[in-house]
Amino acid sequence: MDSEDCLPEGGKLPELKLDARQAQGFISFFKKLPKDPRAIRFFDRRDYYTAHGENATFIAKTYYHTMTALRQLGGNSDGISSVSVSRAMFETIARNLLLDRTDHTLELYEGSGSSWRLTKSGTPGNIGSFEDILFANNDMQYSPVTVALFPVFREGQLYVALSFVDMTNRKLGLAEFPEDSRFTNVESALVALGCKECLLPADFEKSIDLQPLQDAISNCSILLTERKKAEFKSRDLVQDLGRIIRGSVEPVRDLLSQFDYALGTLGALVSYAELLADDTNYGNYTIEKFNLDCYMRLDSAAVRALNIVEGKTDVNKNFSLFGLMNRTCTAGMGKRLLNKWLKQPLIDVNEINNRLDMVQAFAEDPELRQGLRQQLKRISDIDRLTHALRKKSANLQPVVKLYQSCSRIPYIKGVLQQYNGQFSTSVMTRFLSSLEEWLTENRYGRFANLVETAIDLGQVDNGEYRISPLYSSDLAVLKDELSEVENHINNLHMHTATDLDLSVDKQLKLEKGPFGHVFRISKKDEQKVRKKLTTNYIIIETRKDGVKFTSAKLKKLGDQYQSLLGDYTSCQKKIVDNVVQVSCTFSEVFENFAAIISELDVLQSFADLAISCPVPYVRPDITTSEEGDIILQGSRHPCVEAQDGVNFIPNDCTLVRGKSWFQIITGPNMGGKSTFIRQVGVNVLMAQVGSFVPCDQASISVRDCIFARVGAGDCQLRGVSTFMQEMLETASILKGASEKSLIIIDELGRGTSTYDGFGLAWAICEHLVEVTRAPTLFATHFHELTALANKNGDQHQHVPDLGIANYHVGAHIDPSSRKLTMLYKVEPGSCDQSFGIHVAEFANFPEAVIALAKSKAEELEDFTSAPNLSGEPSDEVGSKRKRVFSPDDVTRGAARARLLLEDFSALPLDEVDGSKATEMVAKLKSDFEKDAASNPWLQQFL
Ligand SMILES: Nc1ncnc2c1ncn2[C@@H]1O[C@H](COP(=O)(O)OP(=O)(O)OP(=O)(O)O)[C@@H](O)[C@H]1O
């Protein structure tokens, strides 16, 4: 942790001002609060907030980075440690707790003495009551989702029932699916939904091991909330949903009849999120069946490997795909949709092509793109405004902002209509006709009429949102009176200017502010009129920007104005409520606009990125997962390419069925292997999201899943060894992947001894090639793995080709200068020379050490002049090292290594403790070593 303290400048925190009696009262209240280790509780003390007890220590440590921020409240024996935070600091903490972290909940209390009331509470999955604070100055980038899960055994098969609630978009959903013991489907669903909080039954039967499920939840950084099993019940569910779901109850009943256990999870969610307690929810929710098979599946490892989401420590927005691809213009709506799309890549070729058509249309027509961006920039967050309207406290501001945003829509329509390129029919069907339908007299027209007649739009520029005087005769009278007082004030302004010999407006300004009507002059002018000012006027404030003053007359008129404005406000209150209520009935129109606008926003954002990159992106050709190959010519990693100072070397990737469907990539450290294999995953993901890709040419056979095992992750912190984590991730790949997936594996087997690591890597490769048959990119430092390509069939003997191909990333060592240069070029063939000693030479190791290293390497590596097994051409630097083994030894050895893997994956490691697990693994290892003794090929690894 950063040791430097982060106290405000001068080290001063808001002072905790409580006398002994008040302190005593508060302490007795605080101590009675129910224990909840996850809750961070704040107490609103008007100008500042406080937190106490362990929360105070947490805040001092986490946010001030010093314990000196702590104060003691009350006497030593029953006192509590306390910390105070300013309003601004409170906002920072609230954002961190609810938007960045997922290990706490937030509670806010209001009151005094010993009487306090919980007024707001939020969790990462339910941020509703803190929205005003969280998004006062920031766009809302995602809509958090809370999920409830219930695993169950049925006829010997594990199933999971799932339901979710998205409280920002007022959406519910439910699903039931078969599951494996590692809960891989749940993990994909949690990723696709953008889940932030997950409810699980607490007192769960022991027959199902929930540990892997809890691991999946924690891998996705989701807050786990345990609820009593009794809460997972569906009694009264139809009735409850009937109240909150829009439209008739019949379709809801039909939908629910398709599920068994998911109903209980939905019941738990509805009660946890207290959806019935808020009557603004009534009739405003929608419900759907969540179908996991509609999208490409991604687990948390793939999300990390492909850098899909922004990281907290990213120094540059282009580090993540979201950061790079976000060129949206609307306030929040486009960002939220992009976030969603990136986690839900499509698998239907037509749907993908529909998006690509639009991106191409926008990419090819700069006027269309620019015109759209100009309009989209002026659109506020329609979803959040609609949300605000539904809250009872709503005022006219969201109504006006909705009106202003929606009034851009005819212009957007105009821009789209101008387009007459090859996709004009699609633009018409996808956007124009829906916009036209919603813009009709009957729908948006009625709302626009209401606003234009009811609201005094002329005052909006002054920051006043009021009902038009023409709307009611009472208001008209008040408006006349207000105008009269305003005239008097203006006259007084002129008289005062004459009296002080100052020009109106230029020198003597009239302002409306927290002090009512006041005059303001510059400090320079004040010197000229100081005498008169002090005798005839009342000075209110002297600041850098001038001197504010008033007079008895202005004060009187200002008071009159305020009082009339008060009358106007209370007279219009009923009408305001009515206008807000009627506007609320147009929610569906706004939601539809919001959906169309956000889609346009993301698609134009894709086009903008594709066109404005130094090397433009291209439209990929998409084929179904059953046909076609994955061919990326001149492909780049979009995030690495976008970093300053990187001169990215493009590479081709040709994953061809039966030829190079399984690629082993070798090469020196830092040679670009990992970047290459990730970039293939990123390109495929981008294409299926509907974006152009950073290639010269691309054709992609749709993938239903990307599995990635790249890097060890941070699991050591949770007590899982690197090796175990690696094996667990690989086990999920072996179980879950199919011919339709894409597998990316980097440096598998690094976490254990070379021998075990190699044996496992070989066996895993064999399994992937022969059983899984998924296109795979396997980057490895085990050069010997390249011998796998010998398993490829022989056309002459009519043995089908397994499609194993070797590739390597090259490096060049200049013989005279000994300079090592990474070429970052992926070439066919294996690279099995070691660059380690060259690197050491380059680092000026003593000559004696280098010489010894070389001779030891020769001893160990058994250099031979025999033709190499892979049949690859020799490289420019160094000689290739190859040992000769009989094909029989290699095949039998590999089969034994594969058996080791199978035995390993069959071990019930989830059910036994650490020492038992070590014992089991040791036994497997010793059996393996015994068998390997008679196999020269395996022996080399022992
Ligand atoms: N095609 C490329 N063009 C330019 N620079 C590249 C390219 N590929 C990788 N690099 C640069 O090289 C660095 C190392 O790449 P990478 O991590 O992919 O190597 P690696 O072979 O996987 O290394 P290791 O085996 O040590 O894990 C990257 O951080 C990147 O800056």
From TrEMBL:
From the UniProt annotation, give the residues forming the signal peptide.
Answer: none
Q: Has the keyword DNA repair been applied to this entry?
A: yes
| Residue span, DNA mismatch repair proteins mutS family domain | 741-757
GO annotation terms (biological process)? mismatch repair; mitotic recombination; negative regulation of DNA metabolic process
Q: Which InterPro entries match?
A: DNA_mismatch_repair_Msh2 (IPR011184), DNA_mismatch_repair_MutS-lik_N (IPR007695), DNA_mismatch_repair_MutS_C (IPR000432), DNA_mismatch_repair_MutS_clamp (IPR007861), DNA_mismatch_repair_MutS_core (IPR007696), DNA_mismatch_repair_MutS_N (IPR016151), DNA_mismatch_repair_MutS_sf (IPR036187), DNA_mmatch_repair_MutS_con_dom (IPR007860)
Subcellular localization is given as: Nucleus
Which chain regions cross the lipid bilayer? Answer: none
Q: What family does this chain come from, according to its entry?
A: Belongs to the DNA mismatch repair MutS family.
The task this protein performs is described as:
Component of the post-replicative DNA mismatch repair system (MMR).
- The protein's name in its UniProt record: DNA mismatch repair protein MSH2
Organism annotation: Triticum urartu (Red wild einkorn)
Q: Give the gene symbol.
A: LOC125552003
